């Protein structure tokens, strides 16, 4: 692979690949000529409030990039394929990947971005199912906002460690993309919507719900189908998710002075305190009594 060319700067010192059609921006710049031998280097990143006439047309780009739509609408043509831009949508591009981004005049885009390079840059993108030229969706749509804000804050701060800190946050961002991944469209979207609704139902009523059968009845779904949905999108069964919610609630209650284990067990739906203790340990790794002594 050929060495990267240094990014050209305009008269204000801003990289020329940035669009002037931006109403407001909060950006940071690290090394715009990153060393090729580094494993991973964050080059720059930021948040852009695009103007109604925002449009980008590029046939290539000097670095790998992830862009993430926080608000607004638009159209994207990436590697020859057209996509709709909406909140929660993210996409990646890089060297020799053409991309055309057009914002909606009536609902201008607000989007985050991070540009990076290095020997592991392409591997990182592929690991989060976002190879250059691909589009992804996260749920909820604001799932990545806190990490992007932290990345910008870290990139703007002074100090010798900011480059390493930004690399660490980029790797955390890649993990979060995988964890928050949602279908982009098609028939799978209907299945994901069902999963979302059932998950929300469990979160709202976890203290009352006790069995997989009850969960399925609440969600108006077949037991087996519901389990398949959770294993596909959450890597656990709905009953396992229910137990984790119950045990997290129990852990919070056990941290309060004077609360009895028997009392907490009854609150989360266990008539037998010994059964509750076994489940608590299987989920959180400690018995309720050991957990309380750590407080």
Description:
The chain has 295 residues and is of the alpha+beta class. The protein has two domains: 22-182, Jelly Rolls, CATH 2.60.120.280; 187-293, Homeodomain-like (Arc Repressor Mutant, subunit A, Orthogonal Bundle). The protein has ten helices and eleven strands. The protein has helices at residues 121-127, 145-156, 162-179, 187-205, 212-219, 223-234, 238-254, 261-267, 273-284, 288-293, and strands spanning 22-29, 41-50, 55-58, 64-71, 74-78, 81-85, 89-93, 99-103, 110-117, 135-138, 181-182. Strands 1-2-9-4-7-10-11 form a seven-stranded antiparallel β-sheet, covered by helices on one side. A four-stranded antiparallel β-sheet has the order 3-8-5-6, with no helix packed on it. A hairpin with a 2-residue loop joins strand 5 (74-78) and strand 6. The longest helix has 19 residues, at 187-205. It is elongated, with a radius of gyration of 23 Å. The model has no long low-confidence stretch (mean pLDDT 91).
- The CATH class of the largest domain is identified as Mainly Beta
Question: DSSP helix count?
Answer: 10
- Please give the order of strands in the largest beta sheet: 1-2-9-4-7-10-11
- Structural class comes to alpha+beta
Strand percentage: 15-25%
CATH overall fold name of the largest domain? Jelly Rolls
Regions with pLDDT < 50 over 5+ consecutive residues?
none
The overall number of domains is 2
Q: Main beta sheet: strand number and arrangement?
A: 7 strands, antiparallel
- Number-wise, the strands total 11
Q: What is the assigned CATH homologous superfamily of the largest domain?
A: Regulatory protein AraC
Radius of gyration: 23 Å
Please report the distance between the alpha carbons of the first and last residues: 54 Å
Helices and strands, in N-to-C order? EEEEEEEEEHEHHEHHHHHHH
The backbone outline, from C-alpha atoms, is elongated
CATH architecture of the largest domain: Sandwich
